[in-house]
Amino acid sequence: PRPILLTRHGESRDNVRGELGSFIKKKLANFVEKRLKSERTASIWTSTLQRTILTASPIVGFPKIQWRALDEINAGVCDGMTYEEIKRNMPDEYESRKKDKLRYRYPRGESYLDVIQRLEPVIIELERQRGPVVVISHQAVLRALYAYFADKPLKEIPYIEVPLHTIIEIQMGVAGVQEKRYKLMD
Ligand code: G3H
């Protein structure tokens, strides 16, 4: 059976040249090249954001595809603000999100439900693939993708832990879905 490997980008938005970033990138590339060595139909999917594209850059030998649908949840007017800043400057928004994180839509941005909806074509394409796929994306998006494959209820999605520097491998076989996790760093 063909695995789907989910992982968060290793580069950070603020420090794209960080040492940790390049360490993780190399680790990920080694892991992917080893894990998918004899797979001729494997592909690497990223979002359209630099931090996932750069994370994928040292991986060679597989086609790469960028999906806008894999971009991080759009925080609209809150993009770039810390949770503290949102709490201080937009307390009503902060409270509404806390009350219903699944449905809350950032002003001029998205909700988790919006993200789940835009992932539909990605999921259809993932299920159609004949070979393994490595998905390098972002926390909110990976929460939704993981929930789909691991069959988690909608209401849990905004709280699922998708740890950094970890590869979640999902195998869909006759006996259902199996999951393995690999850490890129101790
Ligand atoms: O920065 C965006 C995060 O990946 C999503 O986190 O939905 O828990 O705020 P949050």
Automatic annotation (TrEMBL):
Highest taxon of the lineage: Eukaryota
A GO CC term assigned to this protein in UniProt: cytosol
GO term, biological process aspect, one: fructose 2,6-bisphosphate metabolic process
Any one GO molecular-function label of the UniProt entry: ATP binding
Protein name according to UniProt: CBM20 domain-containing protein
Keyword annotations: ATP-binding, Nucleotide-binding
